[in-house]
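Lecture 7 notes: from sequence to structure.
We start with the chain below.
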Amino acid sequence: MLPNNVLSTTVEAAPFIPPRNTVRFSFVAGQFDVHYGGIGIGNPSAGLSYQLWTAYSDGTNILLEAPNTPAFVELANVFPTWVALAFDQNARPFIAYTTANGSGFYYWFSTLANAFVTTQLPAGNYSRIFAALDDLRPANIGNSDIILAYTRGGQLYMRQERDRYGIEYDLATAPQALLVQIGMNINWRFQFGFQDVQGNQLLPPVEMAMPPGVNPPS
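Predicted structure tokens for the same chain:
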């Protein structure tokens, strides 16, 4: 969980923990995303960090694959321009995506419906969208949340699993740069990374940190 659903007053920027240690700046990078997950879909028996799963777009569908699982279509005929992947505590996929008209969507398992459902974000222009389970450490799974993050109208917003993604938290005015990554950093703080360009060069990232809600291991 993220305490009080607010940004930390002290920024402690640090490298993201792999595989989140690369930025997703270009729309080429936006065509796929990776996240740790279980031995199989909906199977957390071997832990939530058993292997890296990949979600990717073929232009029409969103597919999932893992080292032990051949690629298969998880979402058909959604025509994504950007894809984000996370897994919940039961190793079920959470997929967020945008479309060419700037709409944003997220696909998640609803315990009320006992099924996967797709929800559209409020009207706005979403070019990039991000998702991550905030804390994969086994001792902290009970406090963990999938975080859905995005910018709209110059503000940084998030939604979280424990609210069934129904509450939009306005975290702060976003830097004048693009949101390019979210996830835990090596100091065990949840972090939002922003990046801009000058000429053809990526500028050093600007980061906004959050306390992860649990103490790091001693």
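Points to note: Confidence is low (pLDDT under 50) at residues 213-218. The first strand starts at residue 32 and ends at 37.
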